[in-house]
Structure formats: C-alpha cells, structure tokens
Amino acid sequence: MLPNFGEIIRKRRKELGFTIEQLAEKADVSDGLISLLEREKLKDIKISNLQKIANALNLDISDFFISKKSDYYTIDIINRLSKLTDEKRKKIFEIVIKLVDL
Prior knowledge:
Blueprint: H1 5-16, H2 20-27, H3 31-38, H4 47-56, H5 72-82, H6 86-100
C-alpha cells in the first residue's frame, strides 16, 4: 500500500478546486488512476505518473513522503523558501521569528 498518497492528493486537489477529471487532464494521467489513488486502492505507481500528479498539484514529489503530521501550509512554505537565495531565506526567517514571538 502506498503511504498516504490518496489523502494528500484529495486534499490538495480540493484546495485547488479541481475535479478528479480536471486533475487527471492537467497531469496527463487517467481519472481512474487518480480515483484509485485517492481511495487508496492502488498498490504501486510509476514514479513518472506520481511526478506528473505532483506537478499538476504544485507539489514537490517529496511531499508525498512527508509525515502525515506535516500540514500542507508548512509544506508549501518550505517549497517556496527552497527556491529563494540563502540571504532572502535568512531575512524571512528573522521576520517569522519576530512574528511568532509577538
């Protein structure tokens, strides 16, 4: 059984306002594949298909392997921060620390 892929896909798909069919089209996979994944009825998946689904959901493929305890806002922030320079990340870190300590 695949680790909580279905839960992640369903939640993110709904956040983005996609139907199963729209996600399947955007990811260039079958709607049956998306449905099986969301219902956790699939035992394995090609990494290329998982990458297509991740891209369509604006996720990184590694997001599928993060603990269930991680929330999607945290994942999104981490993905956005990873694209910034070290200097920008440091400045954002300092701002966040000040906000959290209020």
